[in-house]
Amino acid sequence: MTVVEEGVGGRKGLCSGWLNDITSIKYDQEISDQMKNMTLGEQCYHLKIPMYLRIRNAFSVPTDPSVSLIMISAGTGVAPFLGFLKYRADLKINADSIKLGYSWLFYGCRYKKRDFLYRSEIEDFVATGILNKLSVSFSRDFKQNEGDSQNNIKYVQDNIRKEKEQFVHQLLADNNVTFLCGDAKHMAKDVQRCIVCCISEIKGQDEKEAENIFKTLLKNGRYVQDVWL
User: Is the Secreted keyword given for this protein (predicted)?
Assistant: First the structure.
């Protein structure tokens, strides 16, 4: 196992960095050397790593391929949606006549050249028609365009706002499920506020009514989140 470090501050990978920290308390060697020198017994009895089973939630691709999907993600939050799209691609390979629902991916990352994770795979899904629409934003590449608020796209919610008419139409369609995967503290809350605002504008309703529509989507499992702090 390699300890992943990146950036000026030497930020460690979440899992590999943690493993390195807990083993360095007991050993002075680098973790790669530690693992080479450990016996099976030492691994079993000296390093106790807590693991927990997670109860399955509703965050999974609909089994009905005709269901339309809106997928909203930031950073590594795009990973489960690669699984969603791969599942549909496999269905199409096995039964070319199968009808797939419309799919739309909103994806936000920092830099286009450095952080556009799974770019080639995502572009392949677009090229083959598995993914019908892709809306990407790059927050650190963002440059303010004076007098052009329509194209000031920094975060995923900016793309939602830009496409609000089509977005709300699909969001509220009977055969659509919207998924969000990302940071709970900022991204998920900002996207929710944006969606409520868009519903209010497009449907001509006040904020309270728009919030009730959004809560109904949540209650009925048509807006599903997998978020972390």
Answer: no
Calculate Rg over the CA atoms of the chain: 21
CA pair distance 175, 82, nearest whole angstrom = 21
Question: Both tokens of residue 54?
Answer: 């997670």
Percentage of the chain surpassing pLDDT 70?
Answer: 76
CB 134 within 8 A of CB 122: yes
User: Which residue in the block uniquely carries the two structure tokens 């944006």?
Assistant: 194
Give the per-residue pLDDT at 115.
85
Extents of the domains making up the chain: 2-37, 68-227
φ and ψ of 123, to 5 deg:
-65, -30
Say how many C-beta atoms besides its own lie within 10 A of residue 10's C-beta. Answer: 8
Q: Which two tokens stand for residue 11?
A: 């930020």
The residues, any chain, with a CB within 8 Å of residue 91's CB and separated by 6 or more, are 65, 98, 100
Distance CA 60, CA 26 (A): 40
What's the CA gap between 74 and 13, in Å, rounded?
18
Distance of CA 217 to the CA centre of its chain: 19
pLDDT at 144: 59
- Structure tokens belonging to residue 132: 């019908």
- What DSSP string describes 45-74? HT------PPPP-S-S--SSTTSEEEEEEE
The amino acid that residue 128 corresponds to is T
